[in-house]
Amino acid sequence: MAEWSLRIPDQLDAARRAAESKGRTAVLVAWDGEIHGLLVVADVVKPSSAEAIASLRSLGLKPILLTGDNEATARAVAAEVGIDEVIAEVLPSDKADVVRRLQAEGRVVAMVGDGVNDAPALAQADLGLAIGTGTDVAIEASDLTLVSGDLRAAADAIRLSRATLRTIKQNLGWAFGYNVAALPIAAAGLLNPVLAGAAMALSSVSVVANALRLKRFR
């Protein structure tokens, strides 16, 4: 309102500050050169959001709230769900710059978003996760799409990816160890071809069985 040199009445200004302190967005309404009213809008925080943030923390991750909302609203929402670091009042075009700055600090950045203005940041992040209920642009820019609109799926996806990587390393270790142990024996002519074939089949079965354990992931 300062841009149009409009003075906010004290009563409306107090109501605006009170609304923003509760995590709501206040919109002032003016006509004929004077401010006459105040509209208060708010995004409802999903009941599962706090649990999702706690799950991400348990994985050793540091959640950051990156938003275009004003500072007071952003901090109120962050406090409600358990986020300590807030980067607010960021223009859509600047979100990718914030991700780049975090990467320049040596951080590996995963970005979760659902809007058109999140697309550049999703593409810039080391891992972009789009909410399946969001826009097509965000989904196209992301590396992974969470089918549900529940943020807890982000923590589940990271846990599953870590379990998958751990299984891959185990299988590679087993296959490498098996070959290192068996090759000298075979080269010395001490390993019967039939036994060698059976051992190779057993090795393959072991690798597949270990990978199938991922089906029990919850």
From TrEMBL:
Taxonomy, superkingdom: Bacteria
EC identifiers of the protein: 3.6.3.3, 3.6.3.4, 3.6.3.5
GO molecular function terms listed in the Swiss-Prot or TrEMBL record: ATP binding; ATP hydrolysis activity; copper ion binding; P-type divalent copper transporter activity
Main localization of the protein described in the UniProt heading: membrane
GO cellular component, one term: membrane
Keywords: Hydrolase, Membrane, Translocase, Transmembrane, Transmembrane helix
Subcellular localization, as worded in the UniProt entry: Membrane
Ranges annotated as spanning the membrane: 171-188, 194-212
Pfam families: Hydrolase (PF00702)
GO terms classed as biological process: copper ion homeostasis
Name assigned to this protein: Lead, cadmium, zinc and mercury transporting ATPase Copper-translocating P-type ATPase
Organism (species): uncultured Solirubrobacteraceae bacterium
Source taxonomy: Bacteria, Bacillati, Actinomycetota, Thermoleophilia, Solirubrobacterales
